[in-house]
Amino acid sequence: MAKTEKEELKYEEAVHQLEAIVEKLENNEFGIDELSTELKKAQQLIQLCKDKLTKTDAEIKKILDKE
Q1: Which of 57, 47, 40, 35 is nearest to 6 (CA)?
Q2: pLDDT band at 66, cuts 50/70/90?
Q3: What DSSP line would sit under the chain, residue for residue?
Q4: Which are the contacts of 46, defined by CB distance < 8 A and separation ≥ 6?
Q5: CB atoms within 10 A of CB 53
């Protein structure tokens, strides 16, 4: 996942990709060569989701503090 893709990826799409990875993991659909790559991708997606949630939380708190 390139940096520009990471920046443009929406939260919902990241969650969808994570769900797909988890489903394939649960069904043992990854070969040993794919496993490492997919786990790294999942780790990046998790971080992206955390970052977006943290940013959104901060924005909401800022808006509520103004009231």
Answers
A1: 47
A2: confident
A3: --HHHHHH--HHHHHHHHHHHHHHHHTT-S-HHHHHHHHHHHHHHHHHHHHHHHHHHHHHHHHHHH-
A4: 18
A5: 11
Question: Residue 19 has what pLDDT?
Answer: 97
Residue 44 contacts residue 18 (beta carbons within 8 Å): no
pTM confidence score: 0.78
Per-residue pLDDT of 20-60, as tens digits, reads 999 999 999 999 989 999 999 999 999 999 999 999 999 99
- What's the Rg (C-alpha) of the chain? 15
Which two three-digit tokens encode residue 58? Answer: 């901060």
